[in-house]
Write a structure and sequence with these properties.
The chain is an alpha/beta fold and 153 residues long. The chain is built from five helices and seven strands; from the N terminus they run ββαβαβαβαβαβ.
């Protein structure tokens, strides 16, 4: 993982998928991304909707809530990491959760979540983590079995 400073000029071309079952949180996240001049923002209300969106659209970053109906955020990421979606298995992901880190962090780390943000989040912390994540390039090979990661949310 390395910082790609030239990519800072191309933020407006980044595609971000926001996944949260709370419309208010989706609105807040979209507004924060708008402050960074990110224009291509897709939204889904749960993991199942996100998988459908990913079928026809490539994204550069996934920002997902952990607790959601139908398909939670970590199960969504597990499907992506284990090749059960059309998204790149190495898709960078920021997990957002109202659960304490001790409840979700081990699973999130096992699924290679790049950043973790606890709700209620502070705008400046989230913006900082977004900027860092979007400026990094990922060339790591994902070589372990994500299908073996237990999800207990």
């Amino acid at each position: 993982m390395a910082i790609d400073f030239e990519s800072l000029d191309s933020f407006d071309r980044k595609r971000i998928l926001l996944v949260d079952d709370d419309p208010f949180i989706l609105g807040v996240l979209e507004k924060l991304l708008g402050l960074l001049r990110l224009k291509t923002i897709l939204q889904a209300g749960d993991g199942e909707q996100a998988l459908m969106l990913l079928e026809g659209t490539a994204v550069d970053l996934l920002i997902t809530d952990v607790l959601m109906p139908n398909l939670d955020g970590l199960s969504l990421l597990k499907k992506i990491r284990s090749g059960q979606s059309s998204a790149a298995a190495s898709l960078p992901c920021i997990a957002v959760s109202s659960l304490g880190e001790e409840a979700t962090l081990p699973t999130a780390l096992a699924l290679d979540v790049i950043r973790f943000v606890q709700k209620p989040f502070k705008a400046l912390i989230l913006i900082k983590r977004l900027l860092i994540t979007l400026s990094e390039t990922f060339s790591e090979s994902l070589d372990h079995l994500y299908s073996d990661v237990p999800i207990e949310v």
